[in-house]
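Predict both folds.
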Amino acid sequence: MTRIVSVSVPATSANLGPGYDALGLALEIRDFVTAQFTEDNKVTVEVIGQGAGKLPSDETHLIAKTIIDACKAFGTEVTGLHVECKNAIPQGRGLGSSAAAIVAGLVLASELTYARASEDELLQMANAIEGHPDNVAACLLGAMTIAWLEDDGKANSVSMNVHPDISPVLGIPQTELDTHKARGLIPESIPHVDAAFNAGRSALLVAAMIGDPDFLIEATEDKLHQPFRTQAYPESMDLIAQLREAEIAACISGAGPTIIALCTSDQVAQASEIIAKSGFTAALVAVADQGAIADNNDVKSETD
């Protein structure tokens, strides 16, 4: 018997303005990944869609590497592996493509080895690989998540449903941005008054996202990371300014350069028009109430 396991993982938008490294939102743009052990002592990866022809096709592919390392942690040495990816999440755009790959690899390893790791175990492993829990938590759990680290580095997260009148609209540019470069632009310290500002806005954003969208404009203000990254994506920041002038709550998605407009239903058309006129691709997306979704099938191999 050849066991084939599959998982779908959503895109994510982290930070949402003030919630740097803490807040995440799962979006219904999904990568679908299938994996199986093979007997040919080879590791192969096929990619269709986003990243096709650019991403590695061997054990250096992030999903394959994650599967191999996680299987070893679960007590299984991988000798042969075949992975198939149907990718819809844009690469290098601030929509959590690397987090999705990590979560997909961990879930597939858990299924392939019958480890059946818990959500908490998967979160700890994902955070250790990614280095911060905001995207991986949202990808794993779905909906809107708040993630935090304990003093010993243990990751925690809670998931909550988003107000039904909030409709995210993305502005996706053609350009990519390396996450490490974007994070490197943020200073090591900021004034106390700015930290207090962001603390208040982050708390307000949670209230706005789950209870009262009327506060979204104020709630998405940020002084912690976006101002320092402007040089990395000036066009994105110009677009955000245009949207906010129209009273539409817009901010950078993750490390950028994609922007996310947290619209109420009556703002969707206007936001899409402003985004399209700026040369970005406008995409209305639903909040993904479910995070990673695993499936598995036991099928006979061709030699049986």
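Second protein follows, with its predicted structure tokens after the sequence.
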Amino acid sequence: MAEPVVILTGAGVSAESGLGTFRDKGGIWARFDPARLATPEAFAADPAQVHTFYNLRRANCLDAAPNPAHHALARLGRDWPGEVVLITQNVDDLHERAGSTGVIHMHGRLARALCAACAHRWDAPREMRPTDRCPRCGETATRPDIVWFGEYPYHMDRIAAAVARAGLFAVIGSSGQVYPAAGLVGEARAAGARTVEINLEPSARADAFDDALYGPASETVPHWVAGLLDGG
């Protein structure tokens, strides 16, 4: 059986699909400061403004399409003779639309809604409003099912277990500045995994990796996946 491959993707894997990275200054990011909106405090103070921001992001996501990087990772999941665990910091669903299954969304999903009163989750409509009621408890406390600043990422026990058994750990399209995701490479190396960074340019954690491949994700990721599947 081939070694387990564990992959962490960040915003860079979706940038070529038209979804801006966190630090982009164009489009939605020029109109809103996510650091001031992506917090429980911001939602409590002005839920309409927060919903407007996430409605725009959700519409942007729904109008986007998976790029060759997403399709290559789906191919790896189908064709690799061992385990492949795909973890993403992204809140879009482009991995799933490309054909990947079992994706672990550590920062939540734009396509889901969460009740701040009772923690019920359901599929979000294209547009959410402060007056939306939770289908379970009826409270008008519905919010995007997104991990905000100051909140703990989802599925960290599953992620830690996957990283601990990885033979190969890859980080694709991540800035290396957001923790705890940025610390996973250290955990992988401590567990004995080979590590590779695939990015447009070296990240803040570039020196923590054994290998690196730099360039647009739509080019580098298919090349990397082809090499793995061909035994290169």
